[in-house]
Design brief:
mainly alpha, 5 helices, about 120 residues, single chain, elongated, Arc Repressor Mutant, subunit A
């Protein structure tokens, strides 16, 4: 299992799922902590190779992808590993080693947090 942290999520008092770390941008000005969390996410996605890798994982059948299935993004394998590490550090991906391969997934709560941040 991965030791990477996902975007901070809060458990609502009613126990009905999770809410994103940050409220929509149009609701109120962000706090410093919220801005830091969102900036890490956007910085990680600001690289075209990282965005392609994130998209490849998010759209892969079953919601997870083996690194062997997503490494064809026009850069060397060590560079793919570097970019996947950056996405994990930003909390956008989680990973699990199975034998010699590493499988990546985007947690649904991360997609929900990203979507909620940008909604009106």
């Amino acid at each position: 299992m991965s030791n990477a942290k996902a975007l901070s999520l809060l458990e609502p008092a009613d126990g009905q799922g999770v809410v994103p770390c940050c409220r929509p941008l149009t609701e109120r000005p962000m706090s410093a902590a919220e801005a830091d969390t969102a900036a890490r996410m956007f910085k990680a996605l600001g690289d075209p190779v990282r965005l392609r890798l994130f998209s490849a994982v998010a759209s892969h059948e079953g919601g997870e992808a083996c690194v062997c299935d997503i490494s064809d993004v026009g850069v060397s394998q060590p560079t793919v590993s570097h970019h996947l590490k950056k996405l994990k550090e930003a909390g956008l991906l989680t990973s699990e080693r199975r034998g010699t391969w590493v499988y990546y997934r985007v947690e649904p709560s991360v997609l929900a947090a990203m979507g909620a941040l940008l909604t009106q």
